[in-house]
Amino acid sequence: MKQIIRVHSRCLGVVLPLILAAILHQGFATVAPPTIAPTTAVPHKDPGRPERGTYSVTSQNGTACLLASMGLQLNITFKSVPQNKTVQDVVNLQPNLTKSSGSCESDTASLQLTTDADKTILTFVFTLNTTSHKYHLSEVSLSASWPDKEPVSVHNRSLNYMRGTLGYSYMCHKEQTLNVAQNVSINTFQLQVQPFGLTGDKFAAAEECQLDEDDMLIPIIVGAALAGLVIIVLLAYLIGRKRSHAGYQTI
Ligand SMILES: *[C@@H]1O[C@H](CO)[C@@H](O)[C@H](O)[C@H]1NC(C)=O
Ligand SMILES: *[C@@H]1O[C@H](CO)[C@@H](O)[C@H](O)[C@H]1NC(C)=O
Ligand SMILES: *[C@@H]1O[C@H](CO)[C@@H](O)[C@H](O)[C@H]1NC(C)=O
Ligand SMILES: *[C@@H]1O[C@H](CO)[C@@H](O)[C@H](O)[C@H]1NC(C)=O
Ligand SMILES: *[C@@H]1O[C@H](CO)[C@@H](O)[C@H](O)[C@H]1NC(C)=O
Ligand SMILES: *[C@@H]1O[C@H](CO)[C@@H](O)[C@H](O)[C@H]1NC(C)=O
Ligand SMILES: *[C@@H]1O[C@H](CO)[C@@H](O)[C@H](O)[C@H]1NC(C)=O
């Protein structure tokens, strides 16, 4: 009789945490997003990840007033005249063939990137709100003409990307998509930008984008859950032990 009760409560002590573990595990399967990229057929050859370039704008007194480091990829849907159909093309900006220029004012700063070979002009305009001391990417314009393709010219003045605080740089390691127009989007990779408040030609401390923070959040959640699980198992074990002791005394 003693043996049976003892075995029973021990079993409960082990099985209960296992059930809990199974439930928690299932919960996590839904929390963690699938990281595998969709493998849809790409009509054009994939140019791969763009190379990271560093671009700067200097003010009249010769100091850098805007600094940006990023890989840039243009995603454009356009009509191909010889093919007589709409094609989607993904083009990487090559840093060593790209020239940067621009301007800095107290509440706006612009970065203009030009590549001679493709006759591509890409302009980013940042706006600083001088009351809230926050800046953001407010405007992007792109004009490009490739051989065999219709020229592209888009301008969007109502964007709200790369929101940062004056005195900090804005950083986003993960790929970020800037939707400029219905047929034009820009993918940025390993981005760090500071359009205002530069001191000494160097980036100030960085504010990380939400995408990067979410990435860091998952290991934190998993760690916390594991710690919680250990506590549950311990508690269940201790309760199980107490019960089995109680079992001895009543018999
Ligand atoms: C250069 O000009 C900027 C404003 O355009 C100013 O903030 C900065 O202090 C100046 N730097 C020097 C070395 O004068
Ligand atoms: C380009 O844009 C189209 C639609 O706008 C999208 O389906 C496609 O995944 C994008 N490609 C890349 C490489 O971002
Ligand atoms: C282009 O294709 C459309 C149908 O897809 C056809 O009606 C049109 O005649 C074609 N134009 C030329 C110039 O081939
Ligand atoms: C630019 O860089 C690419 C890849 O790194 C290289 O293949 C190409 O020769 C370079 N072009 C020039 C003009 O330096
Ligand atoms: C600047 O920020 C303040 C406070 O967030 C806001 O009330 C104001 O409308 C902003 N100004 C502009 C021009 O966006
Ligand atoms: C500008 O971009 C915003 C955000 O992507 C979009 O909602 C808006 O339709 C765009 N405007 C134009 C003229 O394409
Ligand atoms: C945008 O793409 C659609 C096809 O997806 C095409 O019919 C349209 O002409 C394009 N618009 C511009 C402005 O290129």
UniProtKB/TrEMBL annotation:
It comes from Mastacembelus armatus (zig-zag eel). Disulfide bonds join 172-209. GO terms for cellular component: late endosome membrane; lysosomal membrane; plasma membrane. Keywords: Cell membrane, Disulfide bond, Endosome, Glycoprotein, Lysosome, Membrane, Signal, Transmembrane, Transmembrane helix. The chain crosses the membrane at residues 216-239. It holds the Pfam family Lamp2_2nd. This is Lysosome-associated membrane glycoprotein 1. It is found in: Cell membrane; Cytolytic granule membrane; Late endosome membrane; Lysosome membrane.
